[in-house]
Request: fold
Amino acid sequence: MKIKKAIVAVAGSGTRFLPVTKSMPKEMLPIIDKPIIQLIVEELVEAGIEDIIMVTKWDKKPLEDHFDYNWALANELKRAGKIELLEKVKKIADMANFIYVRQKGAYGNGTPILSAASLVQNEPFIYCYGDDLVKSKSSFTKQMVKDYEKNGNLLMGVQEIPQKDVVRYGVVKLAKNTMRLEGIVEKPAVDKTPSNYAVFGRFILNQKIIDILKNTPLGKGSELWLTDAIEKYVKKGGEFYAKKVENGEWLTTGDPLNYLKAVLKYALDRDDIGPEIIKYFK
Reply:
């Protein structure tokens, strides 16, 4: 089946960014002039995704408004003759069909999937974390979809990291000389890590994973973990593969330091401001 739907987890509170996230969703923090969430949506749309299901909570209205039409702003831009800006703003709402679902249930990265499960019943879908960017020449989601269409395998995004950093991430254990998943180790010791590939927030999943998630007990921190369900799937004989980013890199924006690094990387690529940024830092 063609993958046409994506679930995006955006129900987090962004406590590491307080006080700015007291009144603004962390996914709306700007990467220069686009919010984080818009860059994720653009990546999905480039991959052919038509329905984008945002799993939200009560304070995410600014995010929903961003992907809606703003007629007052449109009229103001039209009167001012700012046609290029007008088209740019109108285009945002036309990118995809946006669906909003409130998250219910336990904490954990498996809960958003169950909250939206009825909307992706019996079909493959993309699952994304709302604070993970992948800066690449072609959409990483598109790279994953191409692999899925070719091989039919479920996938998770991974990136090679320095060995000293494995203690901060979930790390995959792979079958010898392949990218086939054998397990996932959360925050392994440096001398016991099964690989240097960290898992990040891009997955291709299906109904089998949802069914396992429904029967997965709460794990570490009394949270529902997607990785626990994936491990069960693999142990039952299911095939799941790790997928590296081609011509690009994963950039997390989940904390202030990495967020600022991501902003800088995007800024340096901009012809209009990149050279001035380099000059300023020198």
